[in-house]
Amino acid sequence: MKHSNVALFVPHNGCPHACVFCNQRQITGQSYQPSPEDVLEAVRTAKESLGEKTGNAEIAFFGGSFTAIDREYMTSLLRAASPFVKSGEFYGIRISTRPDAIDDEILGILKEYGVTSIELGAQSMSDRVLELNRRGHTSADVVNASHLIKDNGFSLGLQMMTGMYGSSLETDVETARRIAALSPDTVRIYPTIVLKGTELYGLYEKGEYQPETLEEAVPLCAELLSIFEKSGIRVIRLGLHDSGSLRNSMAAGAYHPAFRELCESEIMYNNALEAIKTAGIGNGAVDFYVAPQSVSRFIGQKRANLNRLGELGITAIVRQDSRLSKYEVRASSQIP
Questions:
Q1: What percent of the chain has pLDDT over 90?
Q2: Is residue 162 a contact partner of residue 217, using CB atoms and an 8 Å limit?
Q3: Domain hosting residue 315, numbered range
Q4: What is the CA radius of gyration of the chain?
Q5: Is 248 found in the same domain as 319?
Q6: What is the pTM of this model?
Q7: Which of 66, 79, 215, 331 has the fewest CB atoms nearer than 10 Å to its CB?
Q8: Is there a single domain that holds both residue 37 and residue 140?
């Protein structure tokens, strides 16, 4: 059964630092702080739409540093959500927070109210990049909090960003490898977007920050996706969620409403090249065999992968083979 979240946003609440890239209100389109009554209303509405599927759903508090907000406010939100978990109507509660806002006391409170999943905004595992972006925590904080969360029986999620101020392709790949080594259950990958009104926007306007382009972000994030999936880690988000507020406030950066699809198609293209090499094919008409569910990934948006292969002198004929895995590609030449 597919997992789902009943998402409630707590924008900017609890954040002790103003990261250079951040404007949560622009990302979510929301500045209102939810009340316990809002939690009840959201959950009741979700119950009506999800029906029997609520047993695999979590009530999720996103958008801020949940464990760093006022303690009474935090527990009031948890008290509103907790009965739905303890009754078995929902699987659990998911929260997102800062790596330096986790300790044994906090985890005890979260467990008491039925929190099941904790996501940490790691963003980078380079201390230099974290400092430049005013994150206010270190990579060691990410490691320590991750171990605490897992040791206390919670599901661990880690979030990372690519193209941050001061980072590089090598830095981002190393961040992914270090995050994978922590064995989180889930990962989210967000290319950095320059939002108007942020410190990063000022750096961009002065020419002191060169944002990652879509053409740079897709092959990089395709590589990161492969790193995590080969480690058995689910990537549950690639790119920011599309919204009118985000589009209106975005000044630059690697954004596409179907960013994950672009990354998965990039993996298929790279695997197609490897399949050609393995089969010893030069050019001409080639049969490419892929899993049925991967046909659109292989073809790419607007037939991008077929066009790229065509530029190499290869006419691709796509065929289905249900024995193949998600990204697997096999090739055979039509020339005897």
A1: 82
A2: yes
A3: 268-333
A4: 22
A5: no
A6: 0.91
A7: 215
A8: yes
